[in-house]
Each structure stands twice: as C-alpha cells, then as structure tokens.
Structure to design on (492 residues):
C-alpha cells in the first residue's frame, strides 16, 4: 500500500506540491488551483533545497499527478527540466502512479467432494479439491489448482495470466491442462501409473514434474519474477 | 450448399450418438466433407465416442454467444481431414443455445460442408427443438422395443409438424435370434407402425461398444457387421440403392463352411 513519506504543511499554508512514496518511486501531486509558476517554484525548492537529502541516493521513478490541470508543451518541458536537473529522479508518467496491482494472496476455494462431469469451479484465487475431478468437469482458477484425488477433467490455472501458476494432483491424468495462455491436452492414453505430479510453465512450454520438485520450482520462479 | 441431417429418437440410449458418429465417419470415408454437431448441451457424448474429448477448447455455446468464431470451435478428426466436430458445452444449461443461434450456425456450416450430421439430445423439449431447427432431413433411430418405437412415433409426429420431408428410419441393435423367436419386434412390425422409409438396420454388435470406448467409430473396423450396416446407410444417404442386410447371415465363417458341406 502507498505510504505517505513526506508531506508536512509549513505554517498552516497548503503545500502546492505534495510528495508521496510508493513501492516503486515517488508521486508528486501538483495542486490544481495554484498558478503553474508558483507550483514550479515550490517544486524546485523542494527538489533542490529542503528535500535534497531525502531524495539523494539511487535513482527513483517520479510519477507526476497533474490533476485537472492542462499542461502546455512549454510547461511540461519546464517541469521535466526541473526533474532532470535533480539527477536522481526519472519522470515516468504525468498521470499519477501506475495502477496498483494487488499482490496479496486471495482466499483459496476449497471444494470437498467429487467434481463431476458438467460441474464447473471458477474462482479468483487458488482452488483446492479434496476429492476427484472427473472427465468433463472443469476448474478455472486465477491461482493454482490442487487436486487431492484424481484429476481426470480439465484444469486452468493462472487464468488471468499468471504464468507462475501450477496444476497439481495426487493422480495426474487430466484431459486438458491450461496455465495462463498455454494449453496442453492429454496423451491418447496415460501409460505410466499416475503419481502425485504438477504441471508448470517453463518459458512457453508446459512441463510436468514430481510433486517433490514443486518447492524448488517456486523458489526458482520467485527469484526470477521478483517484485519489489 | 450442404445438407443438414438431424439424428433423433425421443428415447435415450437407442444409439443416436453412435449412429451420428458412424454415419458421419462413413460419409467422410466416402469422400464427403462432413461436420458432426453435438447439440446435447450439458450431456455431451459425441466427442467421447469420436475420441476427441481432450481437444475441446471452444464449443457450440461459445459460438452462439459470440465468444469465438465458428472455425475456432471446429475440431478436426484424428483420422480424416474432411471430418470435423462442433462439440456441445458441458458446463452450461440446455437453454444456453437458442433456436435462432442454432439456425445461424447451421446455415454457416452448410456453406462449408457437404453434410452436417446433428446429434439430437434425448427428449422432446427445448434441446430437441433447437437440434431440428435448420435441418433439411431427419433420421429417426429406434430399437426393436415397444418403448423405443412408441417414443419414435411421438417424435415422428413432431417432425411432421415442422416443414421437414418425411424422416428416414434406422432400426438399431437388432438381435436376429430374438426376432426369430418372436421375443423382439420384427422389422416389418416396426416399419408398419411407424410407416417411414427404412434407411437401414443395424445388428447388435459388441464391436460398437468396444469401439465407442476406444473413441473410434465402428465403421472403421471392416470386420464388424454394424460397420457394414452403417456404411450401407451412408451410401443410401448419397442415393445409392443398396439392398438391406440379410440378418440370417449372422453365422460366422465356420458355420457357413459347415452349411456348405452339409453339416448345418
């Protein structure tokens, strides 16, 4: 969540430029109803003067929230010039911070019983089935799919595009597995005795591994898809 | 412009799906471009009988609702390039497919295929009305049982209500020895009750069950009698005049040899 880093009003007067810290940079909120030159002066003061200590260090993304103000070309140029002269800030956008992505884990859906042909579980989050999933049954999950029984139906993990999602089952014999946008259908017959396995994405290829490898897979993908 | 044939029966379990799969495959064997359409929303089977269940991505309801193009939902058969399947939806309700949407789909398919074989759901409710809409011809499947014949009669009456040419009859699962003993309805009795043209008779054959479980239509097995029966039916659909199968020939090779040398 965005946490307010520094924005104290001095002597009761309102700040014309408010600075907020977010996960991946700073947001500069420009007051809507003040003359542009005043805003620019205050911004300059803050960047060069009072807040210089705070801002020095590694480079940061700066998101400018110009509000309802229409910036002319010259004004925009002036604004960018102020940031450029500061050196550590890179202007990444003029329309506020990027839309916030919620990375909090969602509640899993736990289904106890046999999921039969024609039945469908669609859930935003992980899906856990304590029982079998028969041919013709369908699970669609934005997270992982875990089946504590036979998976013989179809399962779609990471349905909203999460390529790290996996489909796992105690008896892994699905008709179809989809992870994000990658689809794999069953071989014509399952020759080996099914055991506890999970399917995951290796690039744009789907792979199936023994369950014991899941933890390693998670470690590997987590480090390569690290989010600050 | 292709021809749409609906396969229906009223009663369940008399072999609509098996007949659809085999007639479609037999027509493809004879070089026609065929599309099989499963309209049994919620209880689809045609994909299983054809062994194509694991290839389904989009289905007829997706096409009807516009979530995908018709071409995206068509599944090419493993054996014939000329044979395609439009699968039914499994997780949706019968009402998800409307008469209007079905008409549009069939009209569209008729521009691309020689024959469209429509597998109708059991019953005479909404699903039935959707399945027969857009069809140019109907095939009624029945078995030599009172209940099946009664239901077939009901369906034929309903089909006469819509402007379709008289339906054709397939009598499925005939056991010649039971007919001979009078334990099963005679072919002539059935035709007499239903007064339809007979398109074919199919003997009861274990191959059919085995083949359906393996996801391979029976017509592809040259040694099965049911296979021959369905190939004859396909030829009759194309306009050939093929004599009805002689059911007494049931006896196998050895019995026939014995007959020849007078051992009976």
């Amino acid at each position: 969540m965005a946490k307010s880093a520094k924005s104290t009003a001095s002597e009761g007067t309102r700040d014309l430029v408010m600075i907020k810290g977010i996960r991946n940079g700073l947001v500069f909120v420009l007051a809507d109803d003040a003359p542009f030159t005043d805003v620019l002066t205050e911004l300059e003061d803050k960047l060069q003067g009072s807040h210089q200590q705070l801002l020095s260090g590694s480079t940061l993304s700066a998101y400018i929230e110009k509000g309802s103000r229409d910036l002319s070309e010259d004004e925009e140029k002036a604004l960018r010039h102020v940031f450029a002269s500061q050196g550590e800030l890179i202007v990444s956008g003029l329309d506020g911070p990027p839309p916030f992505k919620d990375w909090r884990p969602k509640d899993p859906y736990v289904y106890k019983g046999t999921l039969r042909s024609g039945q469908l579980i669609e859930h935003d989050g992980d899906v856990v089935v304590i029982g079998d999933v028969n041919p013709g049954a369908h699970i669609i999950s934005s997270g992982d799919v875990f089946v504590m029984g036979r998976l013989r139906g179809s399962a779609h993990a990471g349905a909203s595009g999460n390529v790290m999602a996996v489909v796992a089952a105690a008896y892994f014999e699905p008709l179809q597995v989809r992870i994000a946008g990658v689809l794999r259908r069953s071989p014509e017959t399952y020759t080996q005795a099914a055991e506890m396995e999970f399917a995951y994405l290796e690039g744009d290829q789907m792979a199936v591994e023994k369950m014991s490898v899941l933890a390693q897979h998670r470690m590997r993908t987590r480090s390569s898809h690290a989010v600050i | 412009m292709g021809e749409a044939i609906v396969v229906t029966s009223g009663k369940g379990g008399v072999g609509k799906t098996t007949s659809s799969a085999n007639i479609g495959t037999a027509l493809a064997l004879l070089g026609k471009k065929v599309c099989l359409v499963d309209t049994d929303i919620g209880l689809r089977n045609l994909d299983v009988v054809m062994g194509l269940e694991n290839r389904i991505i989009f289905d007829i309801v997706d096409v009807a609702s516009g979530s995908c193009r018709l071409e995206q939902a068509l599944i090419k058969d493993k054996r014939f390039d000329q044979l395609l399947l439009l699968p039914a939806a499994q997780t949706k309700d019968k009402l998800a497919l409307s008469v209007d949407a079905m008409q549009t789909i069939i009209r569209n398919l008729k521009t691309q295929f020689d024959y469209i074989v429509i597998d109708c759901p059991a019953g005479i409710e909404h699903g039935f009305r959707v399945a027969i809409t857009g069809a140019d011809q109907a095939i009624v499947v029945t078995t030599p049982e009172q209940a099946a014949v009664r239901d077939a009669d009901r369906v034929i009456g309903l089909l006469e209500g819509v402007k379709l040419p008289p339906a054709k009859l397939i009598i499925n699962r005939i056991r010649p020895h039971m007919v001979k003993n009078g334990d099963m309805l005679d072919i002539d009795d059935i035709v007499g009750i239903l007064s339809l043209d007979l398109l074919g008779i199919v003997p009861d054959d274990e191959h059919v069950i085995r083949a359906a479980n393996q996801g391979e239509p029976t017509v592809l097995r040259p040694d099965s009698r049911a296979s021959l029966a369905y190939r004859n039916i396909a030829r009759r659909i194309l306009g050939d005049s093929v004599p009805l199968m002689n059911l007494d020939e049931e006896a196998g090779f050895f019995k026939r040899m014995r007959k020849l040398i007078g051992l009976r």
